[in-house]
Amino acid sequence: MKREILARILLLALCLVVVLIPLALRDRSLTLRARMPEDDGWSPQVIQAAAGQPLRLRLTSEDVTHGFAVGQMEMASVDVLPGVVSEVTLLFDEPGIYTFFCTRWCGLNHWRMRGTIEVSGGDAPALADAPLYVALGLDIDAPHPVPGVPSQIPSAARGGQLAEIVSLAEFSTPEYYRAHSPYQVYQDLVSTNLNAAERWDVVSYLWRSQTTAEGLAEGARLYAQNCAACHGETGGGDGVFADQLAASGQSSSQTMHGSMSARTPADFTDAQNMLGASPALLQGKLMRGGMGTGMPMWGVIFTEEQSWNIIAFLYSFQFQYQGVTR
Amino acid sequence: MKSAMIFRLLMLAGGLALALLPSFAQAAPPVERVFRIEASSFAYKPGQIQLNLGDRVTLELVSMDVVHGLYLDGYDLSLTADPGQTARLTFVADRAGSFRFRCNVTCGAMHPFMIGKLTVGPNHSFTLAAGLTISAIAIFLLIHPRRASQ
């Protein structure tokens, strides 16, 4: 009798072990599945994590090729392929809400494909400073055309030669650069007694001197990856998605006040608009998005520094930077 | 009768010459070529590319909708282009023949059917077909002289 009870207990214990082994060895990493945004995008869309603890993700796609990256984080994007599981381990030092996004153009709504990682632990994160355009009180939706445009493309190299003979100290600070449009600076330069073409050259020089060759290169890289599909590789607002956006905009822009005009992506080669826009204004548009167009909100993706590099690059569609190497 | 025979023999010789001579002719000198291939919704435009042996070729892959790739069979070369990021690849066409190129990035439902063709080598197929046809007619006339002279 005693033996039978012992045998039963042993059997029960064995059964428990069999059940517990897979539970103990279970992979604790989270599987993040990607689908096209029309089919609900990421699943799950919100991921919980703790600061200082590694977050292991297993990424896979259920339809086409996608990519994965976390905004404002130093990381190489990971391709998310159907039929393949890619593993990625993330480490968050600071608590807060991070945005992850698709990095491969998976469809017209690719840019809508985003999700968040809520990182808990430690002190509540300090509130981010208000963007510069708010501090300056700029209305970033107001049109900003300039009355006159330069007759030739302003050259930073020619401007650099002029900069040696006139005093530009008050125009050369980052604060002044960010708060003023090229046209405003052109007008402020009247005091230097230069002619119109020379003043534009000096503006080009001032704009170029607020960035570096590396900054422009990073801006160009980010522009190609994130902006060129709509705004065009040469900045003309004629990217491969421009037509499709206009077509989808027509059907989706019905408002209470009738239909809005479907707006195409901004043309950065248009001097009238670009020379009237200050870096702070462009940064506001970039970081907030919207404008009644399909422009995404980039504030959660780009760091402050990346946004200034992109904006410095955007002005290179207006100014001739050749001959300046710094 | 004799002149008809000579005519048929000449016809045979001419047909064979038309079919075979271009193969012995000097191939076109190698040149630089640039092809812009637009990839959109499961098709390449142009879908067929013709070039000569030894040409230095630059392929520019431009995606018109989603991320697409291009893998060239036989040459083992591949390209990936996101919209707005034109991908370029330069190589020397040192293998003659017809090669498939296909999309190697899963781009959607019809992705497996996204293929194109790259042909390396002179295009003799028309002269070959025309020459062989003329020769065949000449041989037919030589074998059945009576039916032809009726």
Task: Give a topology summary.
The complex is a heterodimer of chains A (326) and B (150).
Chain A: H1 2-25, E1 30-34, E2 42-43, E3 46-50, E4 55-61, E5 66-70, E6 78-80, E7 86-90, E8 96-101, E9 114-120, H2 132-135, H3 156-163, H4 174-179, H5 182-188, H6 196-209, H7 213-226, H8 228-231, H9 242-252, E10 254-255, E11 258-259, H10 271-274, H11 279-288, H12 304-314
Parallel strand pairs in A: 1-4, 3-9
Antiparallel strand pairs in A: 1-2, 4-7, 5-6, 5-8, 8-9, 10-11
Chain B: H1 2-24, E1 32-40, E2 43-45, E3 48-51, E4 56-63, E5 68-72, E6 77-81, E7 87-92, E8 97-102, E9 115-120, H2 125-143, H3 145-149
Parallel strand pairs in B: 1-4, 3-9
Antiparallel strand pairs in B: 1-2, 4-7, 5-6, 5-8, 8-9
Low-confidence segments of chain A, ≥5 residues, pLDDT <50?
253-261
What is the spatial order of strands in the main beta sheet of chain B?
3-9-8-5-6
In total, how many domains does the architecture of chain B comprise?
2
Q: Treating each run of at least 4 consecutive H or I residues as one helix, how many helices of chain B?
A: 3
Largest sheet of chain A: 5 strands, mixed
